[in-house]
Amino acid sequence: MSRIAAVVIEPVLVTGRVVAPQPDFLAQLQAIVRRHQTLTLLDDCLMLRLAVGGSAEKFGLQPDLTILGKFLGGGTPFGAVGGRADIMEMFNPTKPGCLFHGGSFNGNPIGCAAGRVALRNLTAERIAVMDRHRLSIHDALEARASELNLGIELSGLGSVAGIAFTADPSRHEDDPSALTLGPLFHLACANAGVLLGPGGIVALSTVHDEEAVGAVIAGMSTALGVMAELS
Question: What is the pLDDT at residue 56?
């Protein structure tokens, strides 16, 4: 491990399913990495949503560097990196031998303005509301599927969720070209006015209110009815 420069952690897997880490797994992994004097990089592009301090706060981590993505920028093409002062000092452009960090979107005013608004609204109270809305969608879809006698798999954490169908022979992530119930459900949801992420991902934001969540539940429930007719 002495030859490994860094270990990159993506705390929650979101690939159509939402897979949370086992209790203490991330903390134990971080302890091993530190014992070998290797850097811990936290990929929090998706999971900043879990707490005001992101997944680091949620899971009690102290990464050396944290990488953030478009969730921080209010959905715009945006990225940021932050971490230990001594590491970040390497990017100080006023110092000889600094690491150059260039990019097409660096300092983009639209992304920065959207990011400022996103951070202002990403409060503990708003996060709790997002999480509650995701649970409402979960419970409604579970009840609707039971009513239709339709086998579905629901997963989620915080304000992100996933839906899949037990009748599908393979996962959409493994074979995106397979025309199984998952892709058809995506189309049925779009026809009902709800745009899912790829593979059945449902992601909420601070701007989703009760009315929007009600519309999501109604649209996805209608789409489940279509799936019941096809299966």
Answer: 96
Q: What is the pLDDT of residue 15?
A: 82
Q: What is the pTM of this model?
A: 0.88
**For residues 75 and 176, what is the distance between their CA atoms, to the nearest angstrom?**
24
Assign domain 6-121 to its CATH architecture. 3-Layer(aba) Sandwich (3.40)
How many other C-beta atoms lie within 10 A of the C-beta of residue 35? 9
Record: fold of 124-230: Aspartate Aminotransferase, domain 1 (3.90.1150)
Stretches where the chain sits below pLDDT 50 are none
| Nearest residue to 60 (alpha-carbon basis) of 28, 32, 103, 89 | 28
**Pairing between strand 39-43 and 6-9?**
parallel
Q: Give helix 210-230 / helix 124-148 axis angle, nearest 10°.
A: 30
Q: Give me the pLDDT at residue 16, please.
A: 79
Per the CB < 8 A criterion, the answer to whether 51 and 57 are in contact is: yes
Per-domain boundaries in the chain:
6-121, 124-230
Distance CA 227, CA 58 (A): 36
